């Protein structure tokens, strides 16, 4: 009792430190759907039950963009986002990534975007696409729009005027194309997107739903874009490196797919050369990374450490809660992709996660006023 004031100060200091460390260990996860929120709550409950250090709280955001705002202003701390969103989060909101998904346990590659053509099409080069015909999985998709159009802008084949009107520039550039959804009000509010961007589309068996942004358009999606080239409507299709193999050997029972032969198709490389279908690692327009967990810069380490403890407990769980399974939630890829093997720590900035090819490509769209 010599220095009662001193004791009080120590007690207060301890209290402050304790409350700070608890505060520090709260991670508020921004979820954007009921399924995500439910899985987040299950993870939080199971983590607490296993005495995992740190506390997970689940908050709700209206959209990924809303989650970016919430993480920036501190009402949330973390959220899983896909490549284009990661770019927006970094570029517009100054956020970064803590960990990213790995499908092979080694790197954060999701897929390669490749340009596919018929072997018999000679005279075809990625550096001279003017007036050619093209098949795209869908309007504003990463594979079917962002990557190929960004590539054509970066190589100065397409230029957008001050209006920054990409559909017009693309319509002027290609002879005819199929870009499912390009005439939907959502992507064409003024109704004046070029008609030739639907001219390689075929609709359904009754010629309806031409250029629809769904599978009724038979050239929709990656399989549809492949079909569009296989059936000779387009010179080039922009697809994933896996698309051909996903539709071969009876995996797709439609007659056009059963007729496919590997020798009939080739890849067009960004340097103007060509390659066979197996050479996507050296012949692609972009490498698209897997999803990653977006955080504030100062939280990178803290969130990584928490997720490291979480994945050690739940990544390879054979019973009970399983971090990379979505079977209980009525849809695939809830919170994390189901094909994730582990979460990798991201030491560099968000652009290092996105990689040079994809970052360059996204820069082509800066005039659209991303933020
Ligand atoms: C753990 O997760 C399972 C789903 O895998 C869920 O049914 C259960 O309620 C969770 N446990 C706790 C304590 O939250
Ligand atoms: C944080 O951002 C969200 C989303 O924009 C907003 O709803 C909320 O009011 C903001 N909170 C604070 C404390 O600024
Ligand atoms: C889970 O198992 C896979 C396959 O054995 C392994 O590659 C991965 O590193 C494991 N994940 C964790 C977090 O231990
Ligand atoms: C973009 O263009 C520059 C110069 O033409 C080139 O060096 C770079 O590799 C291109 N990037 C991509 C992703 O194609």
UniProtKB/TrEMBL annotation:
<dbReference type="GO" id="GO:0055037">
    <property type="term" value="C:recycling endosome"/>
</dbReference>
<keyword id="KW-0964">Secreted</keyword>
<dbReference type="GO" id="GO:0005886">
    <property type="term" value="C:plasma membrane"/>
</dbReference>
<feature type="domain" description="Transferrin-like">
    <location>
        <begin position="27"/>
        <end position="367"/>
    </location>
</feature>
<keyword id="KW-0732">Signal</keyword>
<protein>
    <recommendedName>
        <fullName>Transferrin-like domain-containing protein</fullName>
    </recommendedName>
</protein>
<dbReference type="InterPro" id="IPR001156">
    <property type="entry name" value="Transferrin-like_dom"/>
</dbReference>
<dbReference type="GO" id="GO:0005615">
    <property type="term" value="C:extracellular space"/>
</dbReference>
<dbReference type="GO" id="GO:0005769">
    <property type="term" value="C:early endosome"/>
</dbReference>
<feature type="signal peptide">
    <location>
        <begin position="1"/>
        <end position="21"/>
    </location>
</feature>
<dbReference type="GO" id="GO:0006826">
    <property type="term" value="P:iron ion transport"/>
</dbReference>
<dbReference type="Pfam" id="PF00405">
    <property type="entry name" value="Transferrin"/>
</dbReference>
């Amino acid at each position: 009792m010599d220095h009662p004031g001193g004791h009080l100060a120590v007690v207060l200091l301890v209290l402050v430190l304790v409350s700070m460390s608890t505060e520090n260990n709260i991670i508020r996860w921004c979820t954007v759907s009921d399924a995500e929120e439910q899985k987040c709550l299950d993870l939080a409950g199971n983590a607490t039950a296993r005495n995992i250090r740190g506390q997970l709280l689940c908050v709700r955001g209206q959209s990924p963009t809303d989650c970016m705002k919430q993480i920036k202003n501190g009402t949330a701390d973390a959220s899983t986002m896909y490549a284009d969103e990661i770019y927006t989060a970094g570029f517009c909101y100054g956020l970064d990534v803590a960990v990213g998904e790995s499908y092979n346990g080694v790197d954060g590659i999701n897929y390669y975007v490749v340009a596919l053509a018929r072997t018999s099409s000679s005279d075809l080069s990625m550096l001279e696409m003017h007036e050619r015909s093209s098949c795209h999985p869908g309007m504003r998709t990463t594979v079917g729009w962002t990557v190929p159009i960004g590539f054509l802008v970066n190589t100065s084949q397409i230029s957008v005027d001050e209006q920054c009107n990409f559909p017009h520039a693309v319509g002027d550039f290609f002879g005819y194309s199929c870009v499912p959804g390009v005439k939907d009000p959502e992507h064409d509010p003024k109704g004046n997107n070029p008609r030739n961007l639907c001219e390689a589309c075929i609709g359904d068996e009754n010629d309806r739903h031409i250029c629809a942004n769904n599978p009724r358009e038979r050239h929709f999606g990656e399989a549809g874009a492949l079909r569009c080239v296989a059936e000779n409507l387009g010179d080039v299709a922009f697809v994933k490196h896996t698309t051909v193999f996903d539709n071969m050997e009876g995996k797709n029972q439609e007659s056009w797919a059963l007729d496919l032969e590997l020798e009939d198709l080739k890849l067009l490389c960004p340097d103007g050369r060509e390659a066979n279908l197996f050479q996507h690692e050296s012949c692609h327009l972009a490498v698209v990374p897997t999803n990653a967990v977006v955080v504030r810069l100062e939280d990178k380490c803290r969130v990584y450490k928490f997720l490291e403890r979480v994945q050690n407990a739940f990544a390879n769980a054979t019973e009970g809660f399983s971090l990379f399974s979505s079977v209980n939630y009525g849809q695939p890829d809830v919170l994390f992709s189901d094909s994730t093997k582990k979460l990798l720590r991201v030491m560099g900035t968000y652009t290092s996660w996105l990689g040079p090819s994809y970052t360059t490509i996204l820069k082509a769209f800066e005039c659209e006023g991303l933020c």
